[in-house]
UniProtKB/TrEMBL annotation, chains A, B:
It is a multi-pass membrane protein. GO terms for biological process: intracellular manganese ion homeostasis. This is Vacuolar iron transporter. Pfam families: VIT1. Residues 1-41 are annotated as: Disordered. The chain crosses the membrane at residues 78-102, 179-204, 210-228, 240-262. Residues 32-41 have a biased composition (Low complexity). Its main location: membrane. Keywords: Membrane, Transmembrane, Transmembrane helix. It comes from Trichoderma cornu-damae. The lineage of its organism: Eukaryota, Fungi, Dikarya, Ascomycota, Pezizomycotina. One of its GO terms (cellular component) is endomembrane system.
Length: 270, 270
């Protein structure tokens, strides 16, 4: 039975990141009918797009819901104050959170790599071999068939570590320059997403009219965004439509709850 | 040069998930000095803990910041209304978002697996072999050394696909029962995290006093939570202290911005 994790063995591999959905990278396959020509590295565009989607998605939902709720109190100024306060808090929480998560992920990768390096130096050759055998056995590969590969891999210290990081620890080397790009991208996407439902409140005097326009604009954008988001991920129109419905349902549920809640609380003595 | 992704080749592997940081699972190593005894599967506890941390972290920051900002307007009732509206919107956005992301991730995995199955059936044996060679070449393994393993792996259709899913696509089979657990866990953690800074406003009449107590309580919890969060992830006290500072800085920055913003807007004519 495994003992509890020691000081040097993490229970969890890295800091909670709001932005790790696509670390498991998808190959961009030049031609899906040809397996051997597949490329297994993700694009930079993928990372940026991922951050934009996460930030925009949350930004569009929560500030929209909050402003819809506050609008029931009848003051445009209050809606703008509450909305902007939420918008900037959310942007900071999301942007800085993503930045720090990326930094911690990098630190975690480096410390794991260092730990592997130390282990390689103090392990017996047979232990190194057994470790690779262990990984390959999961794919029902016999020791006999794996032996030449294991022998060659164990002669190359760096490659043995890379193999283990990839196959056993399943850690991918994070791009060190991406931490701040990720934070800025996600924070700004949250800001842009959250500003959209608020524009009517800036432009219109009557709060009921502004709410109406805000709902109309946000519904259209939620549908379009949900479609594009899923279409980009799964590349078929059915998934896109499903994404549009999902995004809309979340937005409407959140805004509806917020509106009813504020309206109900306003009538009672809290 | 890779062509643009086709209808069946996703640009991004799955829906944006706010909850994917630890899909790249860490082994719980019974003894960090013994490589060969390492176990490479994560625990269920890890997944739940991850969802709790993400939900609690965001819940503690944004509702705290918003209520601090609204408190500058002087009305406890307004703080409670705005805070609860944000809390429930955020909970819905986060919980449902996590649930749907997990569902999409599962669908994505299944569709990729099906695509691999179809490819295996229509590929020449040499193409299957070349694909495995291609993966192993990245670790500087010669074709000669890899040949027996490749031969054996290509005889077993299921194992070839698993190998490719793991090593080339780097996709991990999602637990199908986890989608709703993940959504509920994250949503409730957001709710609990966000309720903590609001309790003083429920209990106290004077909004300035409530703000003071709210800040004190939240600062303590941000520090403790930041420490535990990083300690659990990296298993050393320095990382824990660093986590405590990070979490506090994000919370204070968000709340400070929110407070100053609302105060400034309140003085001007919007």
């Amino acid at each position: 039975m495994p003992q509890p994790p020691s000081e040097s063995s993490p229970l969890l591999p890295a800091e909670p990141a709001i932005e790790r959905p696509w670390d498991v990278k998808s190959p961009i396959q030049p031609d899906s009918s040809s397996i051997s020509s597949s490329v297994s590295s993700g694009m930079d565009l993928t990372d940026v797009l991922r951050d934009v989607i996460i930030g925009f998605s949350d930004g569009l939902t929560v500030p929209f819901a909050l402003t819809a709720g506050l609008s029931s109190l009848g003051s445009t100024k209050l809606v703008i104050m509450g909305g902007l306060a939420e918008l900037f808090s959310g942007m900071i929480s999301m942007g800085l959170g993503a930045y720090l998560a990326a930094v911690t992920e990098r630190d975690h990768y480096n410390s794991e790599e260092q730990r592997e390096l130390n282990q390689v130096d103090c392990c017996l050759p047979q232990e190194l071999r057994d470790d690779v055998f262990c990984i390959l056995e999961k794919y029902s590969v016999s020791r006999e068939a794996a032996a030449p590969l294991v022998e060659e891999l164990c002669k190359n210290r760096e490659q043995w570590i890379r193999f283990r990081m990839d196959f056993s620890l399943r850690l991918e080397k994070p791009n060190i320059h991406r931490a701040w790009i990720s934070g800025v991208t996600m924070g700004l996407s949250y800001l842009v997403g959250g500003l959209i439902p608020m524009i009517p409140y800036f432009a219109m005097d009557k709060v009921a009219d502004a709410l109406f326009v805000s709902i109309a604009v946000t519904v259209v954008i939620l549908l379009g965004f949900g479609y594009v988001k899923n279409y980009v991920a799964i590349r078929n129109h059915r998934a896109g439509l499903w994404g549009a419905i999902q995004t809309l349902v979340i937005g409407v549920l959140a805004a509806g709850t917020s509106y009813v809640l504020v309206k109900a609380l306003d009538r009672t003595d809290v």
